[in-house]
Structures are given as structure tokens and as C-alpha cells.
Amino acid sequence: MNIHEYQAKELLAKYGAPIAAGYAALTVEEAVEAAAKLPGPLYVVKAQIHAGGRGKGKFKELGPDAKGGVRLAFNLDEVKAHATDMLGNTLVTIQTGDAGKQVNRLYITDGADIAKEYYLALLVDRTSSEVAFVVSTEGGMDIEEVAHSTPEKIHTFSVDPATGFMPHHGRTVAAALGLTGDLAKQAAKVAQSLYDAFLATDAAQIEINPLAQTEQGNLLVLDAKVGFDGNALFRHKDLMELRDETEEDPAELEASKYDLAYIKLDGDIGCMVNGAGLAMATMDIIKLNGMFPANFLDVGGGASKEKVTAAFKIILSDPAVKGILVNIFGGIMRCDIIADGIVAAAKEVNLSVPLVVRLEGTNVQQGKDILAGSGLPIVSADDLGDAARKIVAQVKQAA
């Protein structure tokens, strides 16, 4: 689960991270009121969407010459003008894709005199099962280009969970940033606060870009991107309250209500599979046969009839889907349960695209009998290769 920048900053401030004053705003009037509470004379108006690259983004409705989603304002009139431009319009960034995201809220912050920008992030190193720091002197909007062109400028190290964050870790961060004296001490404190926040919230990512050095000699978190491990959110009811469902794909949001692992893709063959590995193999074999998967969908090992029905309806809610391939290996999952769900969903949504089903495992014959006796145009397959060939042929024939 991701949260907005203003929420991330408020959260990190509780753990001691240095944050500039700022306020969220849902309307132009609230934006102006927020700026009036700040010292000024420089304000920053920031679009709040769950995507990076806002500064270089463009608003669809404002034309190619319009400014991006992070703008400076030198008086309240400029704050009002920027807020009017942003709210309700669609911001397209390198991370949103061509569809972009509608801006429904803003973050108005106090400006800062920036002397230097740095990059600091914490991630889970899945190889070592440790929290990894990613540090660079090259912070700002072009960090992706730095990673691509000059990777030697990015330094990484991990923290052993048995010892936790130690003073030498703070010194390592400061050294990687080229900081000495008081700035080095500040860098160590920032790193410690972020590590504490990472562990306490079961975060999956904390990205500070930029971590700014001001002309006054202070380090300041100017932007923050925070995401949490969804599997741990049951322990954090307070964090669940920060969820902004308007930022999520409607189908993925619906899938989460049924504990389905669903990710929308750009293809035209809908997939429903049990098991992540089998799902990836299914997507691969669809591509091998000349078409592309429209989604990743893992119904899990113990899905109910209701869960399978919901999964089927979610796939069919995608207008790009021209055919569906169901690939089930029944271990814990029973093939007759899958078949019942498929038949129920197909009848409820009035199935209008080709459907190929491959069942194997527990109660496989009962499952096949249910499908055969349903009266629906369901094509059975003997194995995965056969299933892929059949769904591709069915879709091409229907085109």
C-alpha cells in the first residue's frame, strides 16, 4: 500500500525526520489558506498522486508548454493560479503511463533555499533478508538517469537485523553523501529516523528524493515516497486509514476485497490461475503462442466458489479482454469448486468471449462434468500447451 507525500512526511516526522512545514488541500481555497499559514515568501505547490516524476510531468488538459506537478509560487495569487491549474486535471508522468492520474489533492509547503540535493532510500534486500540503504550524492528529478548512466554514484549497504542500526551505519551514509562535521551528524540522525520508521511501520520502501542541504546548513526531507508491506497491514490499523482508494486501479481494488492477487496488464487474454508460479508460466505460454496476457490473477490455494466467481467477474470487467484462459492445478484447491465458480460467474455476466479451461488434480473429473453439463460454450483443454493454443485460436476465430 502506498500513501501520499504529505502523509509520508507527517509519518516520518513522528520518528524525528526533519520536515518542512506544509498542509494538504482539496480545493483552491484550501490551498490559499494553507499558504497563508506558512512563513513564505516562497511556497511550493505539489500535486499529490501515487506516482513519481511529478516535477517533469505534464497536464493533459493544459497543453505541452504548461508547467508540471511541482511548482514554485512567490505570493498567494500564484498559489491560487497553480492550484487552479492542477486540481481536477490529469497529470501524466513517466510512472503513470499515458493515461495519467487525476489530481484530487495538493500539498502546499514552505520553500527552502537549496544548496545541494541528495538521494536516500530504504528497501528490503530480499537476498539477505535485511534492510538496504541506497545512497547517492545525485538527488533530484534525474535519479533514474543517474542509475542508468553513472551507477557508480549510487552506494548501497545493508543493516543486519540482529544488530539494528548502529553508529557506523550513520557514518557510512554521511560518507556516501560526502558530508562532514555537523552535516554528517545530521545525516546519521536522518538515516536512524528512517530506519526506525521502516521497521516500526513494516514499510516496503522509504524514498527521500531529494534530501536537501539548505543554504543555512541544515538537512531537510523535501520529498518522501513511502509504501508498506500489504501482508503486514493487519498490524497497523492506523496506517490503513491513510489508504486513498481513488489512487488505485478499480479492478485491483475490487480484487483486494476478496484477497485475490490481481495485476492488470496490457494484453487481451484474461488469465485465472491458482499459484503465482503457475500464473507466470501461463502468461509465458500465451506469449509463446502469439498473444499477450491481460492480467496476472492468482486465486490462491483455497479459494471458495464466491472467490472464484469474483475473480472471473473482475477479469471480464476489463474491456480489453477478448478471451479467458483458466488454468487450475487442484491440490488444496478442488477442481469442482473452480468449475462451480466459473459456471456461476459466466451465467451472471452473460459470457460473451471465448473461454478455455484446463483442470488437473483433486476432483478433476467432477469439475469437467460440471463444465460439460453447464450448457455454456466452454472449451476444455488437456494440458497447458493445449490450453494456450486453443484460447489463441478461439480469439483469432472470433475476431
Q: Could you name the key traits of this structure?
A:
alpha+beta, 3 domains, ATP-grasp, 36% helix, 13 helices, EC 6.2.1.5, six-stranded antiparallel β-sheet, four-stranded antiparallel β-sheet, Dna Ligase, domain 1, Succinyl-CoA_synth-like, ligase
Give the helices and strands, then pairings.
Elements: H1 5-13, E1 22-25, H2 28-36, E2 43-47, E3 58-59, E4 70-73, H3 76-86, E5 90-92, E6 101-102, E7 106-110, E8 114-125, E9 130-136, H4 143-149, E10 154-159, H5 167-176, H6 181-200, E11 203-214, E12 219-221, E13 224-228, H7 237-240, H8 250-257, E14 261-264, E15 269-273, H9 276-288, E16 295-298, H10 305-316, E17 323-330, H11 335-349, E18 355-361, H12 364-372, E19 378-381, H13 384-398
Parallel strand pairs: 15-17, 17-18, 18-19
Antiparallel strand pairs: 1-7, 2-4, 2-7, 3-5, 5-6, 8-9, 8-11, 9-10, 11-12, 11-13, 14-16
Enzyme class: ligase
EC number: 6.2.1.5
Binding site for Mg(2+): 209, 223
Q: What does this protein look like?
A:
- With 399 residues, this protein is of the alpha+beta class.
- It has three domains: 90 residues, Dna Ligase, domain 1; 127 residues, 2-Layer Sandwich (D-amino Acid Aminotransferase, Chain A, domain 1); 149 residues, Succinyl-CoA synthetase domains (Rossmann fold), CATH 3.40.50.261.
- The strands form five sheets. Strands 8, 9, 10, 11, 12 and 13 form a six-stranded antiparallel beta sheet that branches. It has a four-stranded antiparallel beta sheet with strand order 1-7-2-4, covered by helices on one side. A four-stranded parallel beta sheet has the order 15-17-18-19, with helices on both faces.
- A hairpin with a 4-residue loop joins β11 and β12.
- α5 packs across α6.
- The longest helix has 20 residues.
- The two termini are 38 Å apart.
- Pathway: One-carbon metabolism; formaldehyde assimilation via serine pathway; Carbohydrate metabolism; tricarboxylic acid cycle; succinate from succinyl-CoA (ligase route): step 1/1.
- Keywords: ATP-binding, Ligase, Magnesium, Metal-binding, Nucleotide-binding, Tricarboxylic acid cycle.
